[in-house]
Sequence to fold (365 residues):
Amino acid sequence: MKEEKRVTGEPFFPHQVLREAFAGTLLVASIVLLASFLPAPLLGKADPFITPSPIFPEWYFMAMFGFLKFWVWDIGPLSGKILGVLLPGIAIGFLFLLPFLDRSPERHPLRRPLVTAFILLLVFLAVYFAYFAIKITLEHAKVGG
Amino acid sequence: MVVDSVWAWVEVRFKLSREEDVRPLLKKPVPRHATNPIYCLGGISFLSFLLLVGSGILLARYYVPTPEKAYDTVRFIMLEVPMGSLIRSIHHWSANIMVAAIVLHMLRVFFTGSYKNPRELNWIIGMLLLFTTLVAGFSGYLLPWDQLSFWATTVGLQIPAVIPVIGPAMLKVFIGGGEVTGETLSRFYFLHIFMMPSTLVTLMGLHFLIVRRQGISGPL
Ligand code: HEM
Fold:
């Protein structure tokens, strides 16, 4: 395997530790700044009888939420609802098993175009369905008043 | 100096600065290509986690996980506790940044082809880290017990409910039924402050050990 040839570089301490300290300081500073100027929201107390509108999940669930709203078609015995969960589940299964599915030793993304295209497609779909979720939730909120 | 004598006390007993132990730890060379900032995203995820633990411990001093008290204690943290708003907001932002950093870290690992032989297992551990973090985020979202957390959780729980047979069974075990109640709140609190953090610590330990053992993947 060509990647295993020993590479020389700078020692972990202090060179790398300093770089990491720098990145870490930037991170902490950004978080404290964000926290100071954009504090975490707190709405009214939960009321099981009043559904507010619009409701959004956390941004990292938005794509999943959007796909569930997007996919309404039944296929054979599988209802649209089940497929809404099953199809993303299959994509996630592929991601889990990626190292066992993509076994070529090629590492450069352009020299394994198929796998790279698959990941780019997933990223694109995630962004699209997140956008879709926001759009449709806001539309419903308008209609529902 | 006091520090010197404390150090000497420790040194005599644990031989911490023994040359052959310390050299490989501190002087291990970091390959030039791995000093690229995209290689620090894993470290950024880890540091965000540390901030979450720190701010979370402070929040747990005041927070009470019952439907009667949860909301009021969070309000109290925001309005009365000195720097409470800052601490809760740090927790909030660290959580969001942790998820973002993990996703970017994963993309880095993907585009540098670093999941391939011999690093398959660390990719799987990484996926488990991602999912554990997402569950931690989801369970934490409910805790303030405000309108947003209650309804976002109600909507979110419709996803597992759809899965035939195991979906409803899982809801029973983890949520205490199909609806969001005080039972859900106390189970999510347990997930959020115990199950998920301890799982994360264990998985991260394995993840880092494997990275150290195998070394960072070579240049493209
Ligand atoms: C809590 C989340 C995570 C933490 C704290 C974490 C931390 C780290 C750290 C510190 C490294 C060393 C190199 C670097 O920082 O880029 C690393 C490497 C690695 N991580 Fe993660 N990681 C996390 C999640 C993930 C995820 C979601 C994946 C993929 C699904 C993943 C897969 C890997 C692999 C394969 C390596 C070895 C990369 C190489 O040798 O180039 N990790 N991780």
User: Anything to note?
Assistant: The mean pLDDT of chain A is 91.
